[in-house]
Amino acid sequence: MATPIATAILWPEHFLPGSTDNYVSNEVIVAGLSAADVWPFLVDCSHWESYYDNIGQITPPPTGAFFTAEAVGSHFNFATFGFPPLEVVLEEFVAPTATNPGRLAWRAWMEGATGDDALEVYHAWIVENTPWSRDDKPVVRVLTQESQIGVPAKNLSTTVPSPMLLGHQKWLDGLIAYSKEKKEKK
After folding, report:
1. What are 128-174's pLDDT values in tens digits?
2. Matching InterPro entries, A to Z (predicted)?
3. Is residue 28 part of a domain?
4. Cα-Cα-Cα-Cα dihedral sign, residues 61, 64, 69, 70
5. Which of these, 65, 8, 72, lies nearest to 41 by C-alpha position?
6. Alpha-carbon distance 94 to 72, whole Å?
7. pTM of the prediction?
8. Percent helix, strand, coil in the chain (nearest 5)?
């Protein structure tokens, strides 16, 4: 029996799933890619619009479009799900290794929004190699989860089908397809 994967998001208490107004979780496990194949296109926001059409108006952090551990605490902006550009701060960055997961997380909010317009989110990613392979090819697991607070989040949580769930799946699927395309061109 293969070793199960149990790597989980490290949630700030304020954003613990089940205590917020909306929460979504999306995951893919794909043969033929490693964490090293996927990670560069997730942590370089200059690629995002190439594979995800629900994001735009990206202003990278002052450290550049490629996130690093040194960029933790840096602010950047992007617009998504019809919201104006969100103020975003990079909260976690740990690059993956052959045996340890990559971790990326940010906290975002609508600058100046108050009352029913206020929205806060925590969006986290895990990119890791599985302990098994398929046909001698690596297998990567990519998990993304988001926890949201505010009336806009409550509204999203009752919309069927869930725009957050579908949107984040589109982000994952786009990231994987883009990573495969770039790997094939090497």
Report:
1. 999 887 888 999 999 999 999 999 999 999 999 999 999 999 999 99
2. START-like_dom_sf
3. yes
4. negative
5. 65
6. 10
7. 0.93
8. 25, 35, 35
